[in-house]
């Protein structure tokens, strides 16, 4: 997996986005021919985790998680939302969780999911996707990855598992806060300043 991610990163540097898209398409086609499942979290069948962080695969039938519960530092607003954002014109200020989430998103996620979480030609919009996910489901997908079949192209798209990346997993609540603020349209596509 590490070799594949490095290869995708290298292709992006050398060939730009078109090279990355071609590599992703090739990888997705290989995955489609090797697996007949239509949708499942990558690594969900593993009972042991090689790292210290263990996160169970998200249960799609679960009740929505308390969005503010895992957001101990940076806090949300008093309505239970994981974010506290105030905007005027094109300038926004936000709580620490949202600002950190923005920074971590742009360090780890924007290459595939776009600079503002609205998706790309090879990864879905997280702004739209969070309308249907609770925080527990989101955390499970980030930790364990996800494989999704696209019936229009006949290929699979595969999000890698991030459970072995401590920078991602220790900030998954902050990623949720940032993306939830974007999904709820509380934060436009701007860099938020800290409150």
Automatic annotation (TrEMBL):
Keyword presence, Heme: yes
Polar residues: which segments have biased composition?
A: 26-36
Looking at the record, which segments are called Disordered? 26-82
Alphabetized Gene3D superfamilies for the sequence: Cytochrome c-like domain (1.10.760.10)
Q: Where is the composition biased (Acidic residues)?
A: 60-70
Signal peptide region: 1-22
Pfam entry (one): Cytochrome_CBB3
What organism does the record attribute this protein to?
Spectribacter hydrogenoxidans
Looking at the record, the residues that make up the Cytochrome c domain are 96-183
Alphabetic keyword roster: Heme, Iron, Metal-binding, Signal
Q: Which InterPro entries match?
A: Cyt_c-like_dom, Cyt_c-like_dom_sf
**Entries under PROSITE patterns matching the protein:** CYTC
Q: Kindly provide the name given to this protein in its UniProt entry.
A: Cytochrome c
Source domain of life: Bacteria
């Amino acid at each position: 997996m590490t070799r594949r991610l490095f290869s995708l990163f290298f292709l992006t540097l050398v060939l730009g986005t078109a090279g990355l898209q071609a590599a992703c398409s090739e990888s997705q086609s290989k995955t489609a021919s090797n697996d007949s499942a239509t949708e499942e979290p990558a690594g969900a069948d593993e009972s042991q985790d090689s790292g210290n962080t263990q996160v169970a695969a998200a249960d799609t039938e679960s009740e929505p998680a308390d969005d503010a519960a895992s957001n101990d530092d940076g806090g949300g607003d008093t309505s239970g939302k994981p974010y506290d954002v105030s905007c005027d014109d094109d300038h926004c200020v936000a709580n620490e969780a949202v600002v950190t989430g923005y920074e971590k998103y742009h360090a780890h996620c924007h290459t595939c999911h776009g600079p503002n979480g609205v998706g790309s030609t090879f990864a879905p919009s997280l702004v739209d996707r969070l309308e249907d996910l609770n925080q527990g489901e989101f955390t499970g997908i980030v930790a364990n990855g996800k494989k999704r079949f696209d019936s229009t192209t006949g290929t699979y798209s595969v999000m890698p598992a991030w459970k072995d990346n401590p920078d991602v997993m220790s900030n998954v609540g902050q990623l949720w806060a940032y993306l939830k603020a974007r999904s709820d349209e509380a934060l436009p596509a701007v860099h938020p300043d800290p409150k």
